[in-house]
Amino acid sequence: MKVLIPIILVLALLGVVFFVFIRGKTSTKSPSGEIVWWGLWEDESTISPLIAEYEAKNPKVKVKYIEQSKQDYRERLTNALAKGTGPDIFTFHNSWVPMFKNYLDPIPATIMTPSEFSQVFYPVMARDLTGGTGILGIPLGYDALALFINTDIFASYGKVPPATWDDLRSLAIELTKKDDQGVIIQSGVALGRVENVDNWQEILALMMLQNGADLTNPTGRLAEDALTFFTLFSASDGVWDASLPASTAMFAGGKLAMYIAPSWRVFEITQLNPTLNFRTVPIPQLAKASPNQKDVAYATYWVQGVSNKGKNKVVAWEFLKFISSRDSLSKLYANASRQRRFGEAYPRTDMASLLSDHPILGSIISQAPNARSWYLQSRTFDGPTGINSLINKYFEDAVNAVNARNAAAKVLPTVAQGVSQVLKQYGIIR
């Protein structure tokens, strides 16, 4: 009996140790801490219900959302991060990775592996957001160029939307009307210039990519042909000129048959003219050399990143995992749609079917699997020294030079030299 007592005590002690060990291995520590999130496009009323839901599930977490002014946003964000006073989570454009790579924390494998990211989001996002140490952000929305159609004009002419650029060019000439003095009173399409063609940067980049040009070195026949084609609508076809209003205003006014822009321009159009009848269709393509040739679309979207200097990186990533889920994105879309015509298109491939029939977003989503993107982007608010602004200026000068009757082959070497300098400045090329 005396021998059994020590044995029983030892076994009991071992049981306690085992219980404590197992409990420690299986229990999960709930996230805790405060995170600050700098947003740019959504107001607090859209975001706050999701924050409240997350905080209710994680009572030790506090999320503070601060909507930022667009003015000087990139410089303000850069300075704050450099000083160590920046937010835990911040919004940045997909083309800004080179400017923020030193401040961005890669997605931890516990949140999402690169393989999982590639399965969940569109291919362009994995390409854009992959840095030296992993994937550097999570998008909550997606946007890209689409072809906007004034349905009343098309109906009155008995026309259908063009599928190729050649079809678009012919149709644009046919749908353009001029008065007795040769002044354009109805334009077929807004293309060819920089001063009054909104989103000309993305349009030109799209044309060059579709034609196989290398935007990092935009020289040679492929780049020349794309630049020349872009300017034809103004320089020779007479369907657009410098005297016309900005293309968004022209389209909203019902005097522009075709207009190329991302979906967010709809909110501006609707504000200017709530009764305008229009829809979008997929962006035109070049005539295909073979049936297997893929379409090329052009993406422009915003991303949520986590500061690698933040004190609560784990909590920040846990929150982004929550808010980028199917359920959360559906709620964000619904919240935004109560304030405007629609929310942001879903960035997740497993949500594509939810918007396939949408009159505006459906065409954008249909081409998302084949989208590409680059640094030639408009309205990113990256400031005078930002990568977009610097590169845009070189291409702007090239378009103006060709419209002034200079050959594309003559002006593009200067563009290539300038682009090379910018890309070297941001460590993209050596």
Structure overview:
It is a single chain. With 430 residues, the chain is of the alpha/beta class. Helices cover 44% and strands 13% of the residues. It contains 17 helices and 14 strands. The strands form 4 sheets. Strands 2-1-3-13-6 form a 5-stranded mixed β-sheet. A 5-stranded mixed β-sheet has the order 8-9-10-7-11. The radius of gyration is 26 Å and the shape is globular. The protein starts with a helix and ends in a 5-residue tail after the last helix. The N terminus is likely disordered.
Task: For this entry, give a set of tags.
430 residues; alpha/beta; D-Maltodextrin-Binding Protein, domain 2; 14 strands; globular; disordered N terminus
Q: What are the SSEs and their pairings?
A:
Elements: H1 4-26, E1 33-39, H2 44-57, E2 61-67, H3 73-83, E3 89-93, H4 97-100, H5 114-120, H6 123-129, E4 130-131, E5 134-135, E6 138-139, E7 146-150, H7 151-157, H8 165-175, E8 177-178, E9 184-189, H9 200-210, H10 221-235, H11 247-252, E10 256-261, H12 265-272, E11 278-281, E12 297-298, E13 302-306, H13 313-323, H14 326-337, H15 361-366, E14 371-372, H16 387-403, H17 408-425
Parallel strand pairs: 1-2, 1-3, 9-10, 12-14
Antiparallel strand pairs: 3-13, 4-5, 6-13, 7-10, 7-11, 8-9
Helix pairs in contact: 2-14, 9-10, 10-16, 16-17
